[in-house]
Amino acid sequence: MGSNYKHVFEPINIRGVDFKNRIVLAPPSPNLASEDGMVTKDFVNWFRIFARGGAANLYVGNCSIDITECKDEAYQLNLVNDLGVLPMTWYADMCKQYGCHASFEINHNGENSTPEEVGAENRYSSSSFISSAERNRAAMLGREPIPCKEMTKEKIAETVNKYAMAAYRMKRAGMSTVLVHGGHGNLISQFTSPLYNKRTDEYGGSLENRCRFAVEVCEAIREKCGENFVIEMRISADEIAEEGMHIDETIEMLGILKKHIDIAHVSAGLHSDFSMLYMRNWLQNYMMPRMFNVHYAERIKKAHPDLLVNTVGSIMNIEMAEEIIASGKADFVAMCRPLMADPEMPRKYAQNKPEDHRPCLRCLSCCGHLMIPKPIYCAVNPMSFMSRELEDGLVPEARVKKKVAVIGGGPAGITALTTLVDRGHNVTLYEKSDKLGGNVNGAAAPPFKIDCQDYLKWLIRQPGKTPAKILLNTEATKEMLDKENYDALIIAVGSEPIVPKLPGIDKPHVNWAVDAEMGKTPVGDKIVIVGAGAIGVEAAIDFKRAGKDVVVIELADQGTAMANFMRSAGAAGREFTNIIKDEQIQIDYETKLLEVKDDKVICEVGGKTVEYPADTVLLAVGMRPLSDVAASLRRSAPETDVHIVGDCKEVATICEANNAAFQAALRV
Q1: Nearest-angstrom CA–CA distance, 307 and 358
Q2: What's the rounded Cα separation, in Å, for the pair 449 and 459?
Q3: 456 three-class SS
Q4: Does the structure show a pLDDT above 90 at 468?
Q5: Close Cβ partners of 389 (under 8 Å, ≥ 6 residues apart)
Q6: Dist CA 309 CA 174 (whole Å)
Q7: Containing H/E element for 628?
């Protein structure tokens, strides 16, 4: 019997190239090419889990057509010469084993390359200008901004040929589809967009002229690669920037381009200009709507029904993909982070097991790793970090089956449990509270944290699908563990909120902010929140929207506090700052809490005493690792088989907790 998702799993044939379904891996950059830009075996193994998982086409992001003049990542593929063809065949042949297509997103980033990477003489664009990104970079480096160079017609012809040769090398390696990057402020869009293109010759001015370079690129690829080769072009349907391309002009542009491409890959926004202001439109965070760019794809499909359309941007699961395709808004759906979170998602939905798919948090841990640089990996899918060690993308069976205790039922504990069970161990989990999930329960409490809520639901379901013994309301002690004579322990007891030692701090109306959000403690109408980190700000937004009178006090100065907040809020920092401004949430910096009274708090501001009325005081000043609890348990199994992971070792993120727990479970 087939699946319940008839449209997303409908095959399609384009130019004689068969696609087994409509699911595409949107292009990630895994940082696993060699230093000279070649495909490596590690690169191939990283993508293997996506091929096996059931997607129809796997794109690799930001592959340079000539790394000597377009380079903005530490380890990106370089398609400029024939030496890369052989390694590319490893990738293409691997994908064929699973019935999916291997492909690259080929790109020249034009002005976005830095003078430090390629030299000032090799930074080209449609016109000569100094972008805001270059001004910011120059200021940081203490040098004068350097304008990019306007491409001559000879340079344009040379670059067109580089695009065509890059695609041709892909075809020689066994690939039958290419994604040409024409969006996000890269070189092609530096020609098509009036934001960048100030030329007065046949490559500037009118829309037709501005499209000329893109048309020539696609024509050259078609001539070089033949008719049985699929050309997809990535576009920014709307660049959002005021002077840039907007959706109506993009629709008109596609009227010109559609004779030369097979699929329009519809994204939005810009890459690095304007201090990353418009990056959020193609790389959404967890505070932004899902299916973010689908409305653009829908408008394009309606305007050009004869053009195949691929849509991308926070399409979180196959149900969403099915609705998009069934309703005619697009013909393909591209996902990157949701497939990184669960490469097996297509297979699970094809088997009508949607509840088994692991949700993406949209936390952008993956992208944070890209910028270090290190191989990108996922906060909720530790397998993505271990592709080198686990070449087949599968958890290995343990050579010796052991009796193992996991202490703590948060994300680290549950990840450890499921991994240990997969390896064949006999596992018992101890959780002192009456529910699984640990601090994710609190993280998911605000109503706007929908991605975290989905992840929590998935997380707490997993232990019940295993033969492991789950002991809730059971606080593990050394005596208890010693009695069971375990072969190994994984200790993941987490962290607890910091409570400052101040007069009145133990009053009944003083509580942890997260407990209040979860409804564990009552709140009044006048709330003072102590701490302007992510926990404090989330609580302030939550209770302000509930109609409460909220003030946040913060000990640090505004600059330091904002820097700390942006780190703790992660990808959504800018969204939160906008909400704080829009909803007029009061945050008072350099304000030191001195004492809590029954109806107010006493603070020190600039050496003076200030009072804030308060019938509720909520603490959000940070978390403390329960390292003392972990230390009390670590001698209850052979010491070399005791692993301490997660917040009880160092307060960090779900990403660090999950990945450390997974790696520990592999060593048992």
Answers
A1: 33
A2: 15
A3: helix
A4: yes
A5: 666
A6: 24
A7: helix 627-633
